[in-house]
Amino acid sequence: MRRFTSSTTWLAASSLGLWLGLAGCSGDDTGGTDTTTSASTDPTTGTSTDPTGTATDPTATTDPTSTTAPTSTTSETTSTTDPSTTDPSTTDPSTTEPTTTDPTSDSDTGDGVCGDGEIQGDEVCDDGNTKTEAPSNGEVPHSYGDGDCLDACDLLAPTCGDGVVDAGEECDDGNDDSQDECTTSCTINDGGFDSPCVRDCGGMCDANDVLAGEIVGCENVTAPAGAEKVCFDSGHVKLLNIIDRKIYFAEGSCMVAAQKCEGVFCPGYVTFGDYDKFSDCPAGTALADRVTEEGGVKVSTKVCHKTCESDSDCRWNGHDDFWKQPGQFRCQATPDSNNVKICADAQNF
Fold first, then answer.
1. What confidence tens digit (pLDDT) does each residue in 47-70 have?
2. Is residue 21 a part of any domain in this protein?
3. Following DSSP, what letter does each residue of 25-57 receive, concatenated?
4. Residue 309 counted as domain residue
5. Per the confidence metrics, is the pTM higher than 0.85?
6. Tell me, what DSSP letter sits at residue 282?
7. Burial of residue 117, with CB atoms counted within 10 A of its CB: 0-12 exposed, 13-18 middle, 19 or more buried
8. How far apart are the C-alpha atoms of 82 and 148, rounded to whole Å?
9. Contact at 8 Å (CB) between 133 and 155?
């Protein structure tokens, strides 16, 4: 859970490996002409039924047990009940120093229990669940219910975007532009990992060729040895009767990656970086390693993704211009992140 100051410093595979590796997102195989589109191209060429997906719902629990140790040398009193029901008369006042602690306060229990519907401890909000609600509309700006709370009870969704920096928000400039210094998810856009980005290639970017064009928005991402800096964006790719994949990266996402492709259908640009030598990710990121094989094409991909503690660390309120719907970036452990929680769109899995 973010402690309302700054987030930790980002998933998905890349290029053709990305298209091959993400299960549950494929459309009908059409055969014939190869078609590849991305968020940097005309989205009308990638029309399809709007995909749906659900994000992993992390839960947070806190042990409400408190222990009171009186100063008496002959007895020790231990309370395992809610502080609000603790009877202070059980302590002998003749042998115990007076206390100024309010027995009905949450100070002895630390954080409240996120998801119980009661705002306690360090919670900013609590709507009775541990899920970040989707907006009630599909246009920008996104709309949320008055009490909609993020998964870790650390940010109230409807206050993000009102121009006031509220509890749990890193920033709030009150506009719908994630490419400026503050994203629509009220996270600081520092040009680092998981920052929004675009690829400028004259409107002709190939969704497979993630190195095509000039990347705008990842100026503070430095690729370690063996990797390349990339901007993943939403898109739709088709290759003969082998591949038909829909990929989701609302607003684009800055990462570093390396990939190799083996097989007769591998385009030359699908291999980049040095997959075999690339192994170390920068601080604040985690390595996801995936090997996929389909239709005689084997793709091995390594990507560094931003790590997180809760959805508020990710761009949970981003809008996907390619698919014309809200994005679903959430903080979750994915099948290839080795149980590490990263910012990822669940529609890719």
1. 333 333 333 343 333 343 333 333
2. yes
3. -B-----SS-EEEETTS-GGGG--PPP------
4. yes
5. no
6. P
7. exposed
8. 27
9. no
